[in-house]
Amino acid sequence: MKDMKDLETLKEKELAEIAERIQNTISLFRKIACVLAVIIAVAFIFFHVRKDYNNYSGSQLVMAEVVDIEGTSDKNISVTYRYNIAGKEYESDKIQYTEKIKRGDKKEIRVKKSNPEVILQYNDVDFIVIYDVVIGLCLELAVLWLYAMATCMLEEDDAWRNIFVNRGRE
User: Fold this and answer.
1) Do 112 and 55 form a contact (C-beta atoms < 8 A)?
2) β-strand 59-71 against 106-112: which pairing, if any?
3) Residue 147: which residues within 8 A CB-CB, separation 6 or more?
4) Is residue 9 included in any domain, yes or no?
5) Which among 126, 145, 149 has a CA at the least distance from the CA of 137?
6) Any stretches that span the bilayer, and where are they (predicted)?
7) What is the C-alpha separation between 102 and 50, in angstroms, rounded?
8) How large is the C-alpha radius of gyration of the chain?
9) Are 93 and 78 in contact (CB under 8 A)?
10) In this structure, is residue 145 part of a structural domain?
11) Which domain holds residue 31?
């Protein structure tokens, strides 16, 4: 009878060691996944900010005349602008938020220097960089929140595993 209890105790210890090794491995994978997610998010932010900055820094502000306005939806309108750059006249469309605008109005728009027919969405370079950084910070917070939630859920799971493996014994 004593040998059975010793054997049972030995099996419980082996199971506890296996459970601890599994938990350590899961914890290591969790940390590696979090670090990789943060690195990927930072790289995404960096390249996105750099792309937008290069896109907007290679642009110029011009005064344009509103030629046509079409309502595409309740939130957006398609505005056709006519503008001159270095004596050459261009006409391009831009989808933008609905605002009070009519034909013949003069408005400042930002166009690419390398391709003046492309109208950029925003006029302020600083705004777009700050906008990208804020989106990136939100992405980082989401990654950290997911890590915290995964940690809490696994700790709860460990408590339940402890109850069933040890049958409530400490």
Assistant:
1) yes
2) antiparallel
3) 30, 33, 34, 37
4) no
5) 145
6) 28-49, 128-148
7) 35
8) 30
9) yes
10) yes
11) 14-54+128-165
Instruction: Judge whether 170 lies within some domain.
Output: no
Identify residue 18 by its one-letter amino acid code.
I
The answer to whether residue 69 sits within a structural domain is: yes
Read out DSSP for 36-71?
HHHHHHHHHHHHHHHHHHHHHHTEEEEEEEEEEEEE
Phi-psi region of 86 (alpha: psi -120 to 50; beta: other; left: phi over 0): left
CATH number for position 90 = 2.40.50
Backbone angles phi, psi at 160, to 5 degrees: -65, -40
pLDDT in tens, 107-145: 998 998 888 888 888 888 888 888 888 888 888 888 888
Long-range Cβ pairs for the range 145-149 (8 Å, 24+): 146/37, 147/30, 147/33, 147/34, 147/37
- Residue pLDDT, tens place only, 36-65: 888 888 888 888 888 888 888 888 899 999
What ranges in the chain are assigned the alpha helix state H?
A: 2-57, 125-165
